[in-house]
Amino acid sequence: MNVSETAKQRLISLLPEGFRAFSVSDFVGTCRGSTPVLQPANQPQADQQTLECQGLIFFVNRDIYTDFRDCTLDYDRSLFGKGLIATWPHRAGCACHS
Known about the structure:
Layout: E1 2-3, H1 5-14, E2 21-30, E3 33-41, E4 48-53, E5 56-61, H2 65-69, E6 72-76, E7 83-87
Parallel strand pairs: 1-6, 2-5
Antiparallel strand pairs: 2-3, 4-5, 6-7
């Protein structure tokens, strides 16, 4: 996993006081660019695996763990930017229609 400095700072700013991690339950999009579905959390759910990167902790649903582990997180803060975005290497069966 690779987290850009802008994404790291954005994630830190989104984590409310009293929470130590993000629960990642899904992606909206494809390998070419997705928005991760995340929410503050303190512990993983039964179907989640823990991933730590650059001091950030993520509890990731098992069915998307490989994609999330291999992703790059970036943050586009421009006026019409996409916000927090995840991309990862293309895999067979992806819905990106490449």
